[in-house]
Design goal:
This protein is an alpha/beta fold. It folds into two domains: 314 residues, ABC transporter type 1, transmembrane domain (ABC transporter transmembrane region fold); 231 residues, Rossmann fold (3-Layer(aba) Sandwich). Helices cover 60% and strands 10% of the residues. The structure holds adenosine-5'-diphosphate (ADP) and magnesium ion.
C-alpha cells in the first residue's frame, strides 16, 4: 500500500498552528486547564519568593548574629514550601479526569471518521498507520495537554518574573546572567525544525511497524505454512532498526540542545558568582543580595532546562495532531452520508419494476497504474425484475469490482446504474444499502454472537427471520454450537471453517429479504452435498428477489435464469446457460476448463 503524502515537510507547517487545532477538543476542559495552569503558577511563584526570604535571613539575623529574629522568616519559608508542594499536587489532580475525556472524544471521532470514510481511503491506507494514530498519537496529545502545555506557559512566566527579580536585586549581575538567552533562542528554533521532522518520521515508522505486526498476526497460518515467519521476522527487525535509528537521532538532537541549555547558563552563573563575590568584597552589594540572586538564578534552572524537552514534546504532539487530522481531513466526497445527485431521496418507484440496469459503466481503481486500460470499459447489462443473473468471467476480469459498484463501495467513472429506474446516486446510502444486500467473496465475521453477525443484515428482524435465513444458508450447524445462535464467533470467539463462515455470510445477506441481492461466489467453499442443499434453499430466496450472482461452477450458474459473461471490461454475451454453451466457445471454455482453439 502506498503511504499518503506526509505534510510534515511542507514549508507552511508550523508547530503552533498544528497544536491550535486541538483547541476544539480542549475547549470543554478549558477551565480545568486554566485552573491547573494557575495552580502551577502559584506553586512556582511561591518557590520564587523563597530566595527573597533567604535574603532577609542573611542580611538580618545572620549578619547581626541575632537568632531571635529567625522565627518569622523560618515559618514563612515553611509556608512557602508547603504551598509550592500543595499547588503542584492540585495541578495534577485537577487535570487527570477531564483529560481522559478529551482523549476519549478524539479517539471516538477518529473511529467514527474511519467508519465513514470511503473504501478508496481504506484501500490506500495501511491499517497499522490508522491503528497507531488511534493509540499512541492520542496518548501523545493527551500528555501534551497535561504537561508541556501548562508548563510552557508557567515556566515562561516564572522565567520572566525571575529575571525581573534578578534585575531588581542587582542589574549588573542580571545582565551577565541573561547574556546566553540570545544564542539559546536561536538554537531552539533550529532544533525545533530538525526535531519535528524526526518526530514525524518516528511516528510514521511506528505505524509501519504496527502494520507488520497486524499482518503477521492475521496471516500467521500462511506464514507458518510457507515457512515465511523468519523472513517476516527479518522484515520486522529491519523496520524496528530503522525506527531505533530515528529515535536515536531524536535523542541526539535533544542531547545536543540539552548540553547547550544546561552548559551556557551554568557558565553565565559562574561568571555572575565571581563578579558578585568581588562586589560583596567591595561592599557595593550585600551578602544577602548575592545569596538571593544566586538562589533565584538556581530556581530558574528548571524552567530553562525543561525548555528542551517541553519543546521536543510539543513537537511530537504537533506531529501527532497532524497525523490525527490527516485522517479527519480526508475527504468524505465519496462517503456514506453524501448524496451526490441533487433532488430528494427518491425511492425507487414501486410502480416501476425495472430491475437492475448497468448503462455504459466504466470503472478503474484510483490507484491503478496510469498505463493500464479501465477495468470496466462500458458495461451494459439489464437484470429484469425478479430475475437471477449469473456473472461469469476469468479470474481478475472485474466481477467482484462490478458487484462492489451496486452498494456504492466505489463509484463508476462514467455511465450509471439504476435500481427499478432510480439512479443509485440519487438514493441515500442508507436507503441504497437497505435495498441491496451483499455477500462478499471473503466471508468476514466480527467478534460477536452468531445472531449479531447475521442480523447485521437486518437489525430489526425477529427470531423467526433469523431461523429462516439460517435455514436458507443451510447453517443448521449453528444449533450444535455450545450456545446456539448466542455463541461468540469471529477473532475473539469460536473459529469456524471456511464453509461455515460462508454460510453465515449468506444468511446475513438474505435475512432482510432485500429487493436486490448480490452474491459474490457464495458457494465456493461448500462441499458438494451442502452446496446442493444451499442451492435448493437459495432457489426459493432468489425467486423473490432480483439478484446478481458471481459464479464459477456450472452448478451455481444453473441457479440463474440467465448468464452474463464479462470479457475485457464488457459484457460479451448474455443468455441462458444452454444458449451460451451452444453459441459461445469462450463460455464453453470457461465452464469446462478445456482449451478451445481460437
Ligand atoms: N481495491 C483494489 N484496488 C486496486 N485494484 C484492485 C482492487 N481490487 C481488485 N483490484 C484489481 O482489479 C482487477 C479485478 O479484480 P476483481 O474484480 O476482484 O476480479 P474478479 O472478481 O473477476 O476475479 C484485478 O486485476 C485486481 O488486481
Ligand atoms: Mg472475485
Amino acid at each position: 500500500m502506498t503511504e499518503p503524502p506526509t505534510p510534515a515537510h511542507s514549508p507552511k507547517r508550523s508547530t503552533v498552528r498544528s497544536l491550535l487545532r486541538i483547541w476544539p477538543y480542549a475547549r470543554p476542559i478549558r477551565w480545568y486547564l486554566a485552573g491547573s495552569t494557575a495552580s502551577a503558577m502559584v506553586a512556582s511563584l511561591a518557590g520564587l519568593l523563597i530566595p527573597l526570604v533567604l535574603k532577609q535571613i542573611v542580611d538580618g539575623p545572620v549578619s547581626k548574629h541575632d537568632s531571635s529574629g529567625l522565627w518569622w522568616p523560618a515559618a514563612l519559608l515553611l509556608v512557602l514550601g508547603l504551598a509550592e508542594a500543595l499547588f503542584f499536587g492540585l495541578r495534577r489532580w485537577m487535570l487527570a479526569r477531564p483529560l481522559s475525556g478529551v482523549e476519549r472524544t478524539m479517539r471516538a471521532d477518529l473511529y467514527a471518521r474511519l467508519q465513514r470514510l470511503p473504501v478508496t481511503f481504506h484501500d490506500r491506507w495501511a491499517s497499522g498507520q490508522l491503528l497507531s494514530r488511534a493509540t499512541s498519537d492520542m496518548f501523545t496529545i493527551r500528555l501534551f495537554l497535561a504537561f508541556p502545555l501548562v508548563f510552557l506557559i508557567v515556566n515562561s512566566m516564572v522565567f520572566l518574573v525571575g529575571i525581573a527579580i534578578m534585575f531588581a536585586l542587582d542589574w549588573q549581575l542580571a545582565v551577565i546572567a541573561v547574556l546566553p538567552a540570545a544564542p539559546l533562542i536561536m538554537l531552539c528554533s533550529y532544533f525545533e525544525r530538525r526535531y519535528s521532522a524526526a518526530a514525524r518520521l518516528a511516528q510514521d515508522q511506528n505505524g509501519d511497524l504496527a502494520t507488520i505486526v497486524e499482518e503477521s498476526v492475521l496471516g500467521i497460518r500462511i506464514l507458518k505454512a510457507f515457512g515465511r515467519h523468519r523472513t517476516m521476522a527479518q522484515r520486522f527487525r529491519a523496520q524496528a532498526r530503522e525506527l531505533r535509528g530515528t529515535e536515536l537521532n531524536k535523542a541526539r538532537l535533544l542531547a545536543n540542545l540539552w548540553a547547550v541549555i544546561v552548559g551556557l547558563p551554568e557558565l553565565a552563573l559562574g561568571t555572575a558568582l565571581a563578579v558578585g563575590v568581588v562586589q560583596v568584597a567591595h561592599d557595593t552589594t550585600t551578602a544577602g543580595t548575592l545569596v538571593a540572586f544566586l538562589s533565584t538564578a538556581l530556581a530558574l534552572r528548571w524552567p530553562v532546562e525543561s525548555l528542551g524537552w517541553l519543546l521536543a514534546y510539543s513537537n511530537e504532539a504537533a506531529t501527532a495532531t497532524d497525523r490525527f487530522f490527516e485522517v479527519l481531513d480526508a475527504p468524505l466526497a465519496d462517503a456514506d452520508d453524501v448524496v451526490t445527485a441533487t433532488g430528494p431521496d427518491s425511492r425507487p418507484d414501486s410502480d416501476i419494476r425495472d430491475g437492475i440496469r448497468f448503462e455504459g459503466v466504466r470503472f478503474r481503481y484510483p490507484d491503478a497504474p496510469a498505463d493500464t486500460p479501465d477495468l470496466l470499459q462500458g458495461v451494459d447489462l439489464h437484470i429484469r425484475h425478479g430475475e437471477t443473473m449469473a456473472l461469469v468471467g476469468t479470474t481478475g476480469s472485474g466481477k467482484t469490482s462490478m458487484t462492489a459498484l451496486l452498494p456504492r463501495l466505489y463509484d463508476p467513472s462514467a455511465g450509471r446504474i439504476t435500481l427499478d429506474g432510480a439512479d443509485i446516486t440519487a438514493l441515500s446510502r442508507g436507503r441504497l444499502r437497505e435495498l441491496v444486500s451483499v455477500a462478499f467473496e471473503e466471508p468476514t465475521l466480527f467478534s460477536a454472537s452468531v445472531r449479531e453477525n447475521v442480523l447485521m443484515g437486518a437489525p430489526d428482524a425477529d427470531d423467526a427471520a433469523l431461523q429462516r435465513a439460517l435455514d436458507v444458508a443451510q447453517a443448521q450447524f449453528v444449533r450444535a454450537l455450545p450456545q446456539g445462535v448466542d455463541t461468540q464467533v469471529g477473532e475473539q470467539g469460536l473459529s469456524l471453517s471456511g464453509g461455515q463462515r460462508q454460510r453465515l455470510a449468506l444468511a446475513r445477506a438474505v435475512v432482510g429479504a432485500p429487493d436486490f441481492l448480490v452474491l459474490d461466489d457464495p458457494l465456493s467453499a461448500l462441499d458438494v452435498h451442502t452446496e446442493a442443499l444451499v442451492e435448493q434453499a437459495l432457489r426459493r430466496v432468489l425467486a423473490g428477489t432480483t439478484a446478481l450472482v458471481v459464479a464459477h461452477r456450472p452448478s451455481t450458474v444453473l441457479l440463474a435464469d440467465r448468464v452474463a459473461m464479462l470479457v475485457d471490461g464488457r459484457i460479451a454475451a448474455v443468455g441462458t446457460h444452454h444458449e451460451l454453451l451452444e453459441t459461445s466457445p469462450a463460455y464453453r471454455e470457461l465452464m469446462s476448463g478445456e482449451r478451445v482453439p481460437a
